[in-house]
Please model this.
Amino acid sequence: MKINRDLTQGDIKKQLTGMTFPMIFGILGMTIFNLVDTFFVGLIGTRELAALSFTFPIVMTFSSLTLGISTGVTAVVAKVAGRNEPEKLKSLVFDSMLLSLICVIIFIVIGFVILKPVLGLMKAEQDLIPIIMQYMTIWLPGLVFVVFPMVGNGIIRALGDTKTPGVVMLIASITNAVLDPLLIFGIGPFPELGVPGAALATVFGRFITFTIALYVLMRREKVLVMQKRNMRQMSGNWKEILHIGLPDGLSRIILPIGSGIITGMVASYGVAAVAGYGIATKMENFILIITMALSSVLVPFAGQNIGAGNLGRVRKIFKYSNVFSLILQTSLYLVIFPLAAVLAGLFSDDPAVIGTTALYLRIVAAGLGFKGIILMSSALLNVMRRPYIAAAVNLGQMFAIFVPLAYLGNLLFGLFGIFAALLISLLLSAGAAWGLAIRRLGRLQEKAGGLA
Model:
């Protein structure tokens, strides 16, 4: 076992760039999964595209919970790596993977229990439900190939290696992109499966990440080894991981839950509006790729430096990340605004679908720089063991600001009002998130006796 990169010294900007660049491929891979499915399903028809849009909040809910656990693992492992405690690290890795197994079982059971009731709450049309069920019946059991690699890649990132997880995800997304048309349309020897084919392609792509992550942890890094564990030590590690991971996961699911509520509002404007909204939310993740990669890198970076007591270095990392996010997302918005309809047209030729997608992009993309600040602040608060503050920020943004304003905006201005409400909520929440993160960091520095 070795720490791939010591993040407690060296040029901060170069290290952030060096770690973020390969991480982009990982985030890109995750985003391509959704966009490729959307593209090929869109070729079947608007109804199938709308059906896939209804699955998105459910899929993102379980993915968000998994990312929360992964964040908890990354933060805890990074601190241990910063303190250079190899035996503690091995016990954490083993216990993390065992925790992942338990979570997989729970997620799959819950998924099948809540699926139809949630679709009812989102006001999914009855003729779409069979299509949705065909997709989710395949996707839910495939969660085993989602949870394990996400947690495993979080461990690898904590050791300072962002290249391997990024490359693995990119390979998996390419596999999914190749299999999608083959399984959806029945090209060559493959059967024509339609929407279920998209689910099968996704599961097989995730299986690749599962296999490689286990290989890296067991063979290359040698941090995942079978060992006898006593319940007290194991529960202690689980408590440490879940102290960060559980509130972070719950914080992350606020977005898909809110998205489900908004999907219900959008559904009143018809199937085409739902399809357009689904496309737009997936494109939003694509626009945020670099910013999300940087927020993921911030966790091991800040974790190692907090573990080593370099708090002044953490402050610089946080500042650079926020400034970069604002500049980048503002620049992208200037490109996206005039091209919104063209970009929407890549996924559908239905004018109503294109109109909804373009409207969302022209309004919401203006606030994505501020969403970046929320992501950076949440990441830092998690590492500083204040996950409940991070969760409160996201909860407030969604349910205290966005959803109430969306209801009002819908009554007064229709779809424009719903999307404008999201922009306003991002603007208001970013300042609060940044202030809370800086305040907590200042207190840590005071306790440590000043800048480290």
The chain has 15 helices and no strands.
